[in-house]
Amino acid sequence: MNPQTPLLELRAVHTHIGAYHILHGVDLAVPPGQITLLLGRNGAGKTTTLRTIMGLWQASRGSIHCAGQDITALATAQIARLGIAYVPENMGIFADLSVKENMLLAARQARRAAQIDAQRLQWIFGLFPALEKFWNHPAGKLSGGQKQMLAVGRAIVEPRALLLLDEPGKGLAPAIIDRMIEALVQLRSSGVAILLVEQNLHFAQRLGDSVAVMDNGRVVHAGSMAALAQDAALQRALLGLAL
């Protein structure tokens, strides 16, 4: 794919949830092999955007394309099979299952843990050593940071072209945030595109290549993360606070 061609593109996307009109014509482009930050105040429509991309909520107007394919009307399972993974804010961990069993559920090509791609699993253990340490422990017994690592590890247990993450830094200790940033940078280096919703602006500043800022269900600013990080006045205008 041409690096100038977006891997993911939303064109004038509207989403209704019941009687509520949440997204009002979202235009968004996610380049291949980059980390794109989606910022905005609470209630701006960021999570709805991710859920609409994944088909969990259907767009009522507009279109969503991934790698040139129109995915607007596809079911969530079909979208996942195209190499798109989603880690929601609540992480979606199966608390009563072990770390191993959580990972196995996501590895669609494997029926037993021994059938998970060993090289890929070792790479994930390198990113998140706690997953190997607690491999046979119930996922519900993990700390918040370890659960977040499991959620991301599960999302990448198979190769992905695009990873959607909803606030992976929320509530994490600084040392865990550093580990998460390191892992996401490695994922980007491996060619994975990442669309990341984040409220922790320092986390965002350290990671983002490009940024889109949402307000009232629309993208009101798009550009480089570096440019936004250097412009305190623009930050205040868009977000109500400065990095």
Would you kindly provide a written description of the structure presented here, covering whatever features stand out?
This protein has helices at 46-53, 76-81, 99-106, 118-127, 129-133, 144-155, 174-189, 201-207, 225-229, 232-239; strands at 8-17, 20-30, 35-40, 59-66, 69-70, 84-87, 162-166, 193-197, 210-215, 218-224. By secondary structure, the chain is an alpha/beta fold. The chain is built from ten helices and ten strands. Strand 1 (8-17) and strand 2 (20-30) form a beta hairpin. It starts with 7 loop residues before the first strand and ends with a helix. It has one domain (8-238): Rossmann fold, CATH 3.40.50.300. 35% of the residues lie in helices and 26% in strands. The strands form two sheets. Strands 6-7-8-3-9-10 form a six-stranded mixed β-sheet, with helices on both faces. It has a four-stranded antiparallel β-sheet with strand order 2-1-4-5. It comes from Verminephrobacter eiseniae (strain EF01-2). GO terms for molecular function: ATP binding; ATP hydrolysis activity; branched-chain amino acid transmembrane transporter activity. Pfam families: ABC_tran (PF00005). Keywords: Amino-acid transport, ATP-binding, Cell membrane, Membrane, Nucleotide-binding, Transport. This is ABC transporter related.
